[in-house]
Design brief:
Mean pLDDT: 89
Strand content: under 5%
Radius of gyration: 22 Å
Number of helices: 3
Order of helices and strands: HHH
Structural class: mainly alpha
Distance between the termini: 58 Å
Number of strands: 0
């Protein structure tokens, strides 16, 4: 990949930290979303969910 990127006029270094930070932020957002949805489901009134309109 390094050799292929040498042909471009604008280059950016590909380091381990780039992929690590991207994976960390993706996992952080996923955990935040799952935690929010779990807390919302845990505090919801089950009677309202079961009631048929």
């Amino acid at each position: 990949m390094h050799h292929w990127l040498q042909d471009f006029a604008y280059r950016t270094p590909l380091t381990f930290w780039t992929f690590f930070l991207a994976a960390f932020f993706a996992m952080f957002i996923a955990m935040l979303t799952v935690s929010f949805q779990a807390a919302k489901a845990a505090t919801a009134n089950p009677v309202k969910a079961l009631r048929a309109d």
